[in-house]
Amino acid sequence: MKIAVTYNNGEIFEHFGHSEEFKVYEVEDKKVISSTLVKADGQGHGALASLLGNENVDVLICGGIGAGAAAALSEQGIEVCAGQSGNTDAAVEAFLNGQLVDSGVNCDHHSHDEEEGCGSSCGSSCGGCGGGCGGCHQPSFDGKNVGKKVRAHYRGTLNDGTQFDSSYDRGEPLEFVCGAGMMIEGFDKAVANMEVGDIVDVHLMPEEAYGPSDPDAIFTVSFAELPGSDELEVGQKVYLQNIYGQPFPASVVAKDDKSVTFDANHEMAGKELNFRIELVEVL
Question: How far apart are CA 253 and CA 147, in angstroms?
Fold first, then answer.
């Protein structure tokens, strides 16, 4: 079996129609034996569906997806598990354990030519779809690169100097539409007026990164409320379900003899982040 996941920096990319690359996992006996990154080679859901079909993908895990894309994937014989978010590796593990729930078609923005509402047809006037599938993302800032597809190298560190991510280590610049909501706000704003070849250092407060940590996203449940939770370990990442049956990622942060405590905040929530950004190309 092959499972593809819409991919961006280790996370599930929000919109199938905007996907620049996929992480494709090869699975045997419900275990991942290998994985590789596959670059998208076309625009629109038809081209992306064909790409995944040519890769012999059996299952696609993604965030937002429209009826046109779902139909194109179905024609390729690809099962879709939509409405997902969080780490791609964790999502695949959850899928193999039967813990992911498909939300079905969840993007109904059809005011553009492309039936896949979150596809590339949103055009440069709004910089593409971002944030949610309900409409075009309007950035809160201006800049000559806003609405343009750019490629940038970056290195991200915490205040103590610990590196948490680097495109240099992967050997490939990150490609995204500036101002389209595909990146955290502070990163997007930094790139908005850069010239090709420029290198800038930016320090982002949580409000311009992954937001403050929400205390309400830290909660405790008893073993009786969540069967099997007594086997979890502190530090383990899992997928839980909300009251609507939709999965969400969380980390185990504490455990005693009767209950377990989860943190559903993004792992970078509440943290100040530092980026060195090099603008490689404006497409």
Answer: 40
pLDDT in tens, 88-138: 999 999 889 888 777 665 553 332 333 333 333 233 233 333 333 333 456
pLDDT for 44: 54
pLDDT digits (tens, 9 = 90+) for 192-242: 999 999 999 999 999 999 899 999 899 999 999 988 899 999 999 887 877
CB contact set of 59 (below 8 Å; sequence gap of 6+): 1, 2, 3, 4, 78, 79, 80, 81, 95
Structure tokens at 198: 């420029």
As a three-state string, the secondary structure of 73-101 is HHHCCCEEECCCCCEHHHHHHHHHCCCCC
How far apart are alpha carbons 169 and 122 in whole angstroms?
Answer: 32
CA separation for the pair 153, 157 (Å, rounded): 14
137-156 average pLDDT score: 88
Tell me which H or E stretch contains 50.
helix 44-54
Output the pLDDT for position 241. 73
Adjacent-strand bridge partners of 165 = 156
Burial 42-78 (b: 16+ CB within 10 A, else e): eebbbbbbbbbeebebebbbbbbbbbbbbebbeebeb
Q: Report how far residue 278's alpha carbon sits from residue 191's, in angstroms, rounded to the nearest whole number.
A: 9
Which residues are within 8 A (CB) of 183 and not within 5 positions of it... i.e. 6 or more apart? 176, 191
Classify 240 as helix, strand or coil.
Answer: strand
